[in-house]
Amino acid sequence: MLTQPLVLALLFLSPGLALAATDDPLPGETALPATEPSKLLPVKDPRSESPVREVLHTSARIAAEVGAMSVTGLAMGLPGAFIGDALCRNSPGSGDCLGGAGIGYVLGASVGVPIGIMWGASLLGGKGTWTGTLIGAGSAAGAGALTGLLVANDGDRFAAASISALAGSILGSFIGYELSHAANSAPPAPTEVSVLPSVAVSQGGMMLGLGGSF
Asked: Does one domain contain both 11 and 78?
């Protein structure tokens, strides 16, 4: 007489066996229909943000990028101005070296721009990469310098190329950083949870089981 309770206990503790038993009931048994599976519950990433909050966070990050870019651009531009002025004064037949200092400042600031963007964005949890930022800055600065050399007059080519390189460095750094940030911020695919309880009744007793996917 102890065999039947023992078998029922084992079936209760083994959901897989119980579920298998409901598929093929023994002759003479009347199996109750399995209960409906519960709804698939999407598990949301706790780090996901609402659209409004995400826009505010992006605006704050870009503002930090602009502020930090201004600081590093100035910090790198001043040494560039001194170097440009010194090179101009050491050149034979040099006159007013204000233009040389200005070109040196612009070139130094072009180097400081991507550094500031990375620094400012990292303060607010940005996920952009150095690779994307530097590739964007370098390619856009090179394109700007080449455009300045081709478009400007003979006497203004170096000045135009330097200013165009600075503008390209700023624009390219922003684009390169934001693209790499977006690539690293893609939300993961939501996971689904499904639970399926099952009950089967026969002349000899009742079998219970649970099946789920996580």
From this structure: no
The values of phi and psi at residue 22, to 5°, are -75, -25
Token pair belonging to 14? 């083994």
Residues 171 and 195 in one domain: no
User: Per-residue pLDDT for the chain (214 aa), expressed as one digit of tens each?
Assistant: 444 444 454 445 455 444 444 445 555 555 445 444 555 555 555 555 578 888 888 899 999 999 999 999 999 999 999 998 898 888 776 667 888 889 899 999 999 999 999 999 999 989 999 999 999 999 999 999 999 999 888 778 888 999 999 999 999 999 999 999 999 987 666 666 666 666 666 666 666 666 666 5
- My answer on whether 55 and 82 are in the same domain is yes
The answer to whether residues 5 and 204 touch, using CB atoms and an 8 Å cutoff, is no
In sign, the C-alpha dihedral spanning 125, 126, 129, 134 is: negative
Is residue 100 within 8 A of residue 88, CB to CB? The reply is yes
Co-location of 15 and 32 in the same domain: yes
* Rounded CA separation 61/91 (Å): 44
Domain count, the chain: 2
**pTM for the whole structure:** 0.63
In 90-156, alpha helices (H): 98-123, 130-151
In which element (H, E) is residue 173 found?
A: helix 157-184
Do 76 and 105 meet the contact criterion of CB atoms below 8 Å apart? no
User: What gap in Å lies between CA 58 and CA 189, rounded to an integer?
Assistant: 22
- The residue segments making up the domain with residue 144 are 51-184
Do 110 and 89 share a structural domain?
yes
